[in-house]
Amino acid sequence: MPRKAPPSGTRPGIDVLLHENRVFRPDAAFRRRAHVRDVSVYARARGNPEAFWASCAREVAWFRPWKKVLAWNPPHARWFVGGRLNASFNCLDRHLGTAARNRAAILWEGEPGDERTLTYAQLHRETCRFANVLKELGVGRGDRVTLYMPLIPELAIAMLACARIGAVHSVVFGGFSSEALKERINDAKATVLVTADGGFRRGSEVPLKKFSDEALLGAPSVRHVVVVRRGNFPVQMQEGRDRFWHDLMKDRSAECPPEPMNSEDMLYILYTSGTTGKPKGIVHATGGYMVGVHTTTRWVFDLKPEDVYWCTADIGWVTGHSYVVYGPLSNGATVLMYEGAPDWPDRGRFWQICEKYGVTIFYTAPTAIRAFMRWGGDWPGRYDLSSLRLLGTVGEPINPEAWMWYRKKIGGGRCPIVDTWWQTETGMILITPLPGITPTRPGSATRAFPGVEAEVLDERGRVVKEGGGYLAIRRPWPAMLQTIYGDPDRYVKQYWSKWDAGTYFPGDGARRDRRGDFWLLGRVDDVLNVAGHRIGTMEVESALVDHPAVAEAAVVGKAHDLKGQALAAFVTLKEGIQSDGDLVSQLKGHVVRRIGALARPDDIVFTAELPKTRSGKIMRRLLKDIAEGRALGDTTTLADPAVLQVLKQKYEED
Ligand code: PRX
């Protein structure tokens, strides 16, 4: 097969473009026991997607049935119109009268090795109690609550408690800085912040309460702060504003009726990076989202009551929302949560956890798999991983070599791998194999989930049957984002304006092979994927320019063995400022303070000028060539080509 050029701006993804011959068909024994055994499901769903989604929706508990499956007024979709439900009822109450009542909902292990187990009945009680706490703090339907917490059960409890009373949660990943937290609180105008005294990361403390205090200096909407005691970390409590979780929970009633929510009512906001400086508050509604995550969790992971399911994502990301909390719990599953780092106290920690709890389903990111590969097969080899029966990946394209290593070293050659493509915006997995029926090829996410219509289009919107182009989703799906919080115009412009108003543009490049399978190629815009986390180059540029020494900055991604992409920053200093190594570390520190450690640039290069077009646009494409040590692409549109030669030389010297 000839190589096809990826759309301009994508990483070439050579691995993916190489002809991949290896095919792994579902094992007969796996298929016999799988939830989905019959390939006709694809055709059935395609024939009548709304009837298909309605059949999925019947697996969710409703207080009042919907009148209409879908009202589609492009690009606005209303799913299960007229229906009423509650997400926390679906994750908790519906299991209480079943065998799941005393089953572990959460098996939790802290980084230092402490353990907690919460059955469904216990999780229900704690959720109701915290829901009552929130009510007492004046939180009601539609109010926003920001959660800035470590990966501890209280985070799931707080989310479910918000959902229970119809409040909207906005989880901010605990790795974000106080500045990033402040920005997100202010955008959502949250009235309550739930945090912890601190969290553990590689044995040291992440001072979440201290960061919260800094954020709150500039976030006047917050009236109450609830602080979970996670470690015995010292904290300053502000009288009248701050209360400890355990004090508030004392004597709280364990009964709290779930608020009947309209299907279209907001369940949560989750901020994600876009192409402009400001993060976007992605809004998810209740009904469609619950149907989407319930169904995909059951089908893609083939989740059964006896499984021990471990998705290693932090709850602060969408993967944690959909596939640690809402999807698995609404299925009555046993969810494992581990608070800390994979290499603490040593590089065998994940495998030791798999052995100890008998993990059967394991879902992680390619960046983690590449790190495991680098650490060597001896680490997993020391543990008994025979309980595993299914593996998953998400967050970025997986290179075939990593896929094969995962299959062999972790899956013992017997576990199917589901490579799942989706986004914060999509809320649910959209492209994935179904493990009992879909043949897989290393590096391909295979095909659209039943009821989802995906295609590859060219710039002008023409269908590319075989070859490269842009990924497009042609019809609405239940868990799709509703809007961008407070910015409905940007919602339309960003996602529904590349082609026609009914076609969703995710911003990813993709290739289709002759079988129609999808090979994802990475982002086509100014959004980078660093270790599976989306980072807008604009955000990092804004953080750099915010430093008093910086006049101008351009940030690009460069290929990185472990992280997929790393950040390289090209910086012009203000007149009279001396560049030195000290300033490099100062600037890196500045970005960490503004955004968080996940956005720290690997390289910072000072330059008297940035390469620009005659109209003044920074040519990031050429900077990327420099950062990746490639021959420079087309430079004919540059205002001053000499700038580039100097820069290239300088980068190589540094
Ligand atoms: O570029 C795609 C990549 O991650 C982006 C979405 O990032 P985020 O909203 O943070 O959500 C990550 C977890 C769902 C996508 O636009 N991506 C995600 N999954 C895959 C992927 N790229 C290739 N293959 C995947 N399986």
Keywords:
GMP Synthetase, Chain A, domain 3; alpha/beta; disordered N terminus; binds adenosine-5'-monophosphate-propyl ester; 654 residues; globular; single chain; 8-stranded mixed sheet; 21 helices; 30 strands
Measured as a percent range, the helix fraction is: 25-40%
Based on DSSP secondary structure assignment, what is the total number of beta strands? 30
Report the CATH architecture of the domain at 527-653. Answer: 2-Layer Sandwich
Average pLDDT confidence is 94
Helical stretch count? 21
Q: Going across the major beta sheet, what is the strand order? A: 12-11-8-6-7-14-15-23
First-residue to last-residue Cα separation: 40 Å
CATH class of the domain at 527-653: Alpha Beta
Which oligomeric form is depicted?
single chain
Assign an overall shape: globular
Give every kind of bound small molecule, once each.
adenosine-5'-monophosphate-propyl ester
Give me the Rg, rounded: 24 Å
What proportion of the residues form beta strands (DSSP E)? 15-25%
Largest sheet: 8 strands, mixed
Ranges where pLDDT stays below 50 over 5 or more residues in a row are 1-16
CATH superfamily of the domain at 527-653: ANL, C-terminal domain
Q: What is the CATH T-level topology of the domain at 527-653?
A: GMP Synthetase, Chain A, domain 3
